[in-house]
Amino acid sequence: MIAVLRQDATESQIESLCDWFQEKGLDVHISRGEYQTIIGLIGDTSRIDTDLLCGLSIVESATRVSEPYKSANRKFHPRDTVVKISDTVRIGGGHFAMIAGPCSVESEEQIVTVAKAVRQGGAAVLRGGAFKPRTSPYDFQGLGADGIHMLIQAGKAAGMPIITEIMNASQLDLFEEVDIIQVGARNMQNFDLLRELGRCGKPILIKRGLSSTIKELLMSAEYVMAGGCSDVILCERGIRTFETYTRNTLDLSCVAVLRERTHLPVVVDPSHATGAARLVTPMARAAAAAGADGIMIEVHNDPSAALCDGAQALTPAQFASAAADVLAVRRALGMEKDGEN
Amino acid sequence: MIAVLRQDATESQIESLCDWFQEKGLDVHISRGEYQTIIGLIGDTSRIDTDLLCGLSIVESATRVSEPYKSANRKFHPRDTVVKISDTVRIGGGHFAMIAGPCSVESEEQIVTVAKAVRQGGAAVLRGGAFKPRTSPYDFQGLGADGIHMLIQAGKAAGMPIITEIMNASQLDLFEEVDIIQVGARNMQNFDLLRELGRCGKPILIKRGLSSTIKELLMSAEYVMAGGCSDVILCERGIRTFETYTRNTLDLSCVAVLRERTHLPVVVDPSHATGAARLVTPMARAAAAAGADGIMIEVHNDPSAALCDGAQALTPAQFASAAADVLAVRRALGMEKDGEN
Amino acid sequence: MIAVLRQDATESQIESLCDWFQEKGLDVHISRGEYQTIIGLIGDTSRIDTDLLCGLSIVESATRVSEPYKSANRKFHPRDTVVKISDTVRIGGGHFAMIAGPCSVESEEQIVTVAKAVRQGGAAVLRGGAFKPRTSPYDFQGLGADGIHMLIQAGKAAGMPIITEIMNASQLDLFEEVDIIQVGARNMQNFDLLRELGRCGKPILIKRGLSSTIKELLMSAEYVMAGGCSDVILCERGIRTFETYTRNTLDLSCVAVLRERTHLPVVVDPSHATGAARLVTPMARAAAAAGADGIMIEVHNDPSAALCDGAQALTPAQFASAAADVLAVRRALGMEKDGEN
Amino acid sequence: MIAVLRQDATESQIESLCDWFQEKGLDVHISRGEYQTIIGLIGDTSRIDTDLLCGLSIVESATRVSEPYKSANRKFHPRDTVVKISDTVRIGGGHFAMIAGPCSVESEEQIVTVAKAVRQGGAAVLRGGAFKPRTSPYDFQGLGADGIHMLIQAGKAAGMPIITEIMNASQLDLFEEVDIIQVGARNMQNFDLLRELGRCGKPILIKRGLSSTIKELLMSAEYVMAGGCSDVILCERGIRTFETYTRNTLDLSCVAVLRERTHLPVVVDPSHATGAARLVTPMARAAAAAGADGIMIEVHNDPSAALCDGAQALTPAQFASAAADVLAVRRALGMEKDGEN
Fold first, then answer.
1. Where are the beta strands (DSSP E) in C48-159?
2. Which of A213, A286, A288 is closest, CB to CB, to C252?
3. Identity of the residue in D261, D282, D332 whose CB atom sits nearest the CB atom of B329
4. Tell me, what's the pLDDT at C309?
5. HSE-up (13 A, CA, CB side) for residue A72
6. In terms of DSSP bridges, do strands A97-101 and C294-298 run parallel, antiparallel, or are they unpaired?
7. Which residues of chain D have a CB within 8 Å of the CB of B257?
8. Which of B6, B18, B27, B42 to mutate to test the interface with C (most CBs of C within 10 A)?
9. Which of B173, B197, B222, D54 has a C-alpha 20 to 30 A away from that of B23?
10. Half-sphere exposure of A194 (CA within 13 A, CB side)
11. Where in chain A are all domains bearing CATH 3.30.70.1140?
């Protein structure tokens, strides 16, 4: 950590600041210039609050040069985390999974049909929303507990583990048979929820918030991991920018950055990012090429007839074709392990 | 609402879509061009899901031309909402309030001292955080229930109503003696929480999310109002942009836009937006000039010594000076009602 | 084009507006609602100024539903444009090209060495900067005319066509032997320059501005095409967002969107977008998978020793490996035509 | 400047890097940690290229802690710059000016009428566009040389100095009788143009680019000042964000930041920022309260009838009212000097 002091800091102020750092167990290095004095701090600065430091009247700026996340940091845990989802499905460390299903569970028939279709098309995990966060209170909010029950049945019928989104910790009881609990983009910084989920013993997939930095995503993983959970999966799903042709801007560089900074697996969701079915396949191909450990795609049995979220859903046939492309890309780049997952 | 159809939409597809709109009680107007057909929908479209519409294979785009919010919409409720905070304090409709206090409640002595000082300096409402959402699990998270208790005592001691932030609905019992419940920027789209708060019978202040549009802020107000609450206060506190000199970019145009679009009062928080004490006074002056109904400012009894959040806090003396400036601006612009609030 | 009128527009105002539209040769369709009147305009609206329309006191908003670009629009020119760069190199319509070279031309020896190395590694076109736009007046600004001369020599020595950036129209004479003239991101809306380039008879590559929308990029292509030039290549090079781990955010969805909206070829520059050599290869792979017609990569003979722009440059060996990956991805996805380009 | 070295940097690499810094006349301070080594550089680092430093394989990151701008830096020139526009008009150092006029010069009659009206309403400087940068090649591009001539006549008729925008250096001859030359937002990083303007001996107003940081704006001022010009005026006119209710987001914090960082005067343009006449007055008031040295407002004699840019123009009467408000705010805040400008 680097602190730049103001020109008018007095010697005794600087001294008392340095004493305070040393009490925290940090090594302090001072560089004095004509217009500025710079203090370099070496040691475990993860528990030092940057805002706190900037709050001091003699400090002009404070910059963290080491990352404030530890459990999620590849520097301290160089080996890839492999998250075991079921007896046969793993994500991370070379294990790749296609995750597919409808945006919302609409009926048992619908979800079972889609489940079997995406399984056939190459999906390893079934997704489906039961609790839906909607911007408008007048929009459809999901089937709730019934939806989760239907999803569980569909997972069993198709022989697939399932993932679905939780909205608040009071719903946890309903998630006992859910294999991966998803934290949505809008809840990425619902710290109370993250803390609770860290104690529930299940793999947690955290979606990046619309305007969250990569560092903030890793700090949210840190919240979950601080509770004891090490099976965290990160998910890039587009960020908010000025561009309006796509719903959000899919940040694929984030995949490469995350692989470098963390040992946790990274999944990409091109459906929500682009908001347009016709952009999903090229972005799924690109996500695979960028090194994603999994790709989550919205699939609906009849997107054009359905009156819900069809805009971004693929048909089962389109999904199977996208999944085949993804596999082809992975093989071409030597990413695919034979006979696994 | 306007739907633009794809070039290849067939007559029978267009007809069945129009039938479906008419069943929803909407008037349908069709304009046919060489490359596009445009459908104009007149009537109550607030319950039509734009995503749903875009999902249809024959639809190229769908644009809402009337706002999806109703309860918060000035078009349907032209008169300003006046939120009654206490017997003597009101916000909105010409009533203006300075809200001040420390970022975090640290001790009973601290909060009582600050309360009396800001009251003296011109504040009408006391703020203070007890539950603090922090990006890092290793940072200070607030005093919790104890903090709320101290804040209540301080409010009584200084004779001021109080405002503090709630993190999740399970904390509601602790807020019985709180006068305004604050929803933080990170929870602006925690829809479960908003829905619960709409039923609690207290004024709710909603902070705009870091990357939330004005429309989304109004939709969040709509969630609270849908629960029966009409005492909603909106708060601009900076949005996330590419600029890094300030922590966030304070969007003061938002104040003028909100006054036009909604009858709800609008408060501005220059402390969190800028993250720097020396920018707070000019931005408080500007917020008053832009027409804000209230200004919320972080004040600490000893920002330079304190080891928490001092960067953006004013001293009580600086606050009193800023409050005097705000009053002067309001008087100069004829905004101040004599003898009130 | 759709115009939404204000509630208080009078009948005679509406009538005189409609007359004006009809004089412009447009068909006018009116839909009247309780709170709004909507006017749909069918016909060639590309010459109607949206700002102009919004300027009328009776207009609440005006939305273009057809694109304002015509020459670049795939709707009117469905077939891919193939840009002929040299006797053997083409870009677009299935023809793909790797473009490689140093950020700046430093010396004849350097540029010849790099040229031969990238040719060997799979590049079809040589890049190298002679005029460098730098944020600081104190930074190195390029070798200018000498640099262009060296680049031309290196292209001849390696048997490759060359591309380099122009800063203003007065430099055009120096570009006679340059095969593709590049317009940098900062000049994307230098309309005087675009207009001049449209008349110079050479292929023009336009880089997307840091904060330019896809539509604005297409409008800039329209400026060049309005001058008579049809050989325009578009280049995605990252947009400015709040994320700071990468220099800019590479928007690969833009590639898929552009392929849908325009017939012009699309090139991706992962070096400038990410600003970090270690992210270039994954992003080059992803760009190929997303369907780019070309990839532009910064290569330096000795990035670690060189004291210029090395951060984002690959070594020739790294480039050869990335180029092989790109080819593998294209083959796996059936994008590669045999025996061509 | 701070450089953080990679974990795997060898002693001899570090040593040779430090030698290189010392050759540049910098003092070097090394802090060694377990995972990182930090180098602090003290001295004149403005000529060190950060990109260059990051390019070295042993460098993880490099951060500038002192600003790269010198001539524009308040640290080195604490006194406010006062720009003399005419015998009676000054901007900066307590001198304030309203700048007003139409977006485009349309005819001599129009510009003379507006000039007299805004003079009457409190404007000190007359604005009017002759060369208009337009996104679409099909939109009106301004009257060019004729427009400048009309503007000069109008300035003389009303007894006001004038400001108008230049698009490229080849137009300079036409600007001989122009009092302030404006560089538009799209040309803020047209470095060739900036360099030329620095030598022309006239006051230059630089508009902040849509996606330019405050630092980049200051660096553009630095380009002009490097040519010998010290009469530079900075102009905030809104930045591009995700918000779409306003055309751009007016960043008023920028005014307070600039007053702290630079001695150059700062002007605010609420018309282009908001794009809506009804938001101009509240934002003009706010800009004055934030401490702007001038406010530039679009005024048209008949915005509702005119078919050009009326959306954001005030009528002369609205302008006079806004100007009176601005004066009232300035007086209330003690900003107004008696008997001057």
1. 59-63, 83-84, 90-91, 97-101, 125-127
2. A286
3. D332
4. 52
5. 33
6. unpaired
7. 245-246, 279
8. B42
9. B222
10. 30
11. 2-63
Q: Which residue is listed with tokens 């290869």?
A: C281
Q: List pLDDT tens digits, range C186-200.
A: 999 999 999 999 999
**Residue A318 · residue A118 · CB < 8 Å:** no
Cβ separation B243–D260 shorter than 8 A: no
Identify the CATH number of the domain defined by range D83-332. 3.20.20.70
Whether A27 and chain D come into contact, CB under 8 Å, resolves to yes
Inter-residue contact A242 to C251 (CB < 8 Å): no
What percent of chain D has pLDDT above 70?
94
Q: What is the pTM of this model?
A: 0.90
Gap between the Cα atoms of A260 and A276, Å rounded: 30
Q: Is D57 in CB contact (< 8 Å) with chain C?
A: yes
- Chains interfacing with A (3 or more CB pairs < 8 Å): B, C, D
Report the residue of chain C nearest A286, measured CA to CA.
C286
- Smallest Cβ–Cβ distance between D51 and the set C168, C216, C309 belongs to C309
Residues B239, D260: C-beta atoms closer than 8 Å: no
Nearest-by-Cβ selection for A40 from D35, D38, D244: D38
Q: Interface pTM (ipTM) of the complex?
A: 0.90
Is there a contact between C57 and D140 if contact means CB atoms under 8 Å apart? no
- Go through chain A and tell me how many residues it has: 341
Contacts of B287 in chain D (CB under 8 A): 286
Superfamily of domain D2-63 in CATH is: Phospho-2-dehydro-3-deoxyheptonate aldolase; domain 1 (3.30.70.1140)
Give percent above pLDDT 70 in chain A: 94
Strand partners, D236: D268
Is the CB of D195 less than 8 angstroms away from the CB of C137? yes
CATH 3.20.20.70 domain range(s) in chain D: 83-332
DSSP D147: H
pLDDT in tens, C291-309: 999 999 999 987 655 544 5
pLDDT one-digit tens code per residue, A139-197? 778 899 999 999 999 999 999 999 999 998 999 999 999 999 999 999 999 999 999 99
